[in-house]
Amino acid sequence: MGLVMGTFSMQSKQVNYHKDKADDDLEMTMVCHRPEGLDQLEALTNFNKRELQVLYRGFKNECPSGVVNEETFKQIYSQFFPHGDASTYAHYLFNAFDTAQSGSIKFEDFVTALSTLLRGSITEKLQWTFNLYDINRDGYINKEEMTDIVRAIYDMMGKYTYPVLKNDAPKQHVDAFFQKMDKNRDGVVTLDEFILSCQEDENIMRSLQLFENVI
Amino acid sequence: MAAGVAAWLPFARAAAIGWMPVANLPMPVAPAEKSKRQDELIILNVSGRRFQTWRNTLDRYPDTLLGSSEKEFFYNEETKEYFFDRDPDVFRSVLNFYRTGKLHYPRYECISSYDEELSFFGIVPEIIGDCCYEEYKDRKRENAERLMDDQEDNKDAKLPNMTFRETMWRAFENPHTSTMALVFYYVTGFFIAVSVITNVVETVPCGSVPNQKEVPCGERYTVAFFCMDTACVMIFTVEYLMRLFAAPSRYRFMRSVMSIIDVVAILPYYIGLVMTDNEDVSGAFVTLRVFRVFRIFKFSRHSQGLRILGYTLKSCASELGFLLFSLTMAIIIFATVMFYAEKGSTSSKFTSIPASFWYTIVTMTTLGYGDMVPKTIAGKIFGSICSLSGVLVIALPVPVIVSNFSRIYHQNQRADKRRAQKVQKARLARIRLSKKGSSTAFLHSKRNGLFNEVLELTHLPYKMNLSEQSSTEEEQQLSKSTSLLESQHHHLLHCLEKTTNHEFVDEQYYQQSYLEAGLQNYSSQSPSLSSQDGVTGTCCTRRSKKHHTPLPNASGPAHMPPLRHAHPRGLQELSTIHIQPLSTSRSSLNMRVDDAAPLNCQSSQITTAIISIPTPPVTTPEGDAHLPVGPAHQNVVKVSAL
Prior knowledge:
The complex is a heterodimer. By secondary structure, chain A is mostly helical. Chain A is 64% helix and 6% strand. Chain A has eleven helices and five strands; from the N terminus they run αααβααβααβαβαβαα. Chain A has helices at residues 2-29, 38-44, 49-62, 70-79, 87-97, 107-119, 122-133, 143-155, 169-181, 191-200, 202-208; strands at 67-69, 104-106, 141-142, 161-162, 188-189. The termini of chain A are far apart. Chain B is mainly α. Chain B has a four-stranded mixed beta sheet. The longest helix of chain B is centred in the C-terminal third of the chain and has 41 residues, at 417-457. The interface between A and B is large, with 65 and 65 residues. Strand 4 (161-162) of chain A pairs antiparallel with strand 5 (503-504) of chain B, so a sheet runs across the interface. Chain B: It is found in: Membrane.
């Protein structure tokens, strides 16, 4: 009988514990962030007021609290790629957007990055891409980092592709490109090498201009 | 693609810049925005209540009324608003669906009016969010049951063309259908009662012969009781055989619980008939008579409540098992304690632990017969603890069982989760299908889009050869517009394909290509055969097409300078595939050699693209040649993607 009473009392204690944790979670999500004023943002970025309004409306719709955390970011990005797994690439993207490494993206970060990507100069775009590829932020891209990124891109394709995706397809892909980019053959690609080799390739230059008129 | 994230499409497209430096191939052209349309507010007037929203919000779901051009039918020129003569309360939920991407079902709303509104606005109920879906399905089921009950009340008329067997079975199952059935029902009920009472009265001692002790009636009026028993058993046997005859599935009937009860009820009598002569087994024969009491279970055919009770007990098995287990635990503990406590006292009835079990059970259930009582002080102390805890241990699981009972009873009444499970599976299948629709939409649009490109590039000489009818059909197909959002999304996916130099295909095609990649290793023989087959062999079957792998290689250098070896192969294939879907006449295939020349002039873009593929040339002809005729659509995609 004592056992029975004991088990019942233990269970009730557990319930309390769960409630406390839920309260904590609730408190965290109540944190709200408001962006700076429209005028400041307009000055900071290359967007005009109307575009900022449209962007903010979309942003706030998905993230009512005003910040995006990595989970939400991954979910949103994965919706565009239903075939494969976009979470790894979304992770790298998240780190690239989150310049302050704070674990969440505020609207200012979001809109600054978009401004660079859509309205920035070629050099700025390439610099942003270099930051994206440089996973550990040491200023150099080595082969492993590039392989990681390329593998993340291939993951987005999913399983059903033609021709059938082989396991070393990312590696082969990277081999071809790394040789091209690493001019002084020291095993890492610096920012200058990167920008130089991209500027040499006409395809890349042309494709960088592709998304000029998005928004 | 969900609605809310449509606003994030610009972000996804911008992020695609990250792929550019490592892309293998040049990116496709972005879809042009037809007009830099400012986002405008539109007014929806629903029975006088005005709702306003952005036009883009409604455009998120182009396959509904509000998202498509169908709403133009409701446009009022004078007031510049869209007027709908529908329920404004339900419209709130509909509009919120566009805004948030989630459809909610308000509880106060009538299910049939809600369904009507949803079907008017072209929204599939399956996308109701998980928060409201259970409620929606419950209400829908209740409604359906109500309709069915109404139907059944009208359905008592006998269906024509029922065989005698079916009529009998129906009579057995529903006694109210005909008077005969009702008579049969009551007669069998009466005889079950008679049989049970007979069994009971048999053992009552009735009137004694003066110089002997009292005898039970069964032994006094043996013949009478035997006749009664025989009559009952005969009736039961006849009934069982009739049911067996009428049952639609005899095997299933024989396995059912009721039929087992029937058999067990009548079997002792027959066994008794067989065995009366043998004295040794008469003891066993007496035991068999106990089974006659099972006849009382035959009443469950006559009572719905009994059946539900039986079913409920069956489903409460786990709770009952728990009760039994906890009781057993407590009994063993206390019996052990009492045994050792009473070990010392003389003439103790607690001779062993199993003997103490009886004491523990009697005490815990507060019966207290008094045939075993503890005498030592320790025994009395533990005995009192035992009786106090007995109340608690028994009282605790009982409410669990009772609540389970009532839950199952209500559940059973509404004929329940099993049907919901099936619907759940169907719903998931439907949602999966609609989600797949979005990814197949990409593949379809690729096909359409590339028809467009190919036609543009090779318009003049080929359009002459096409019949007028087929070309207009194609044009009509192409002009079916996808929304700007969709085309941008597809452009994004297309860029990804170019980056990785692989393509999205659907599962079927993937399986095929996977299998054939395995078959490729075996099919390197007989190039001569294929070269003689020529063009006509090309279009026969997929497998024969595969044998054409060496053909372009062989003929390439023969026709053209070796420098442009890659081109004619790719271009010939291009022309082959290009022509095939557009006009299915075989004769057009014969044109391919002649038309190679003009093709070269116009499609310089294509040739450049062919050269820049980093993959070894061996694989590309495999890919090109390997084009099934049937699902040729996807192959158009592949070739011109070069």
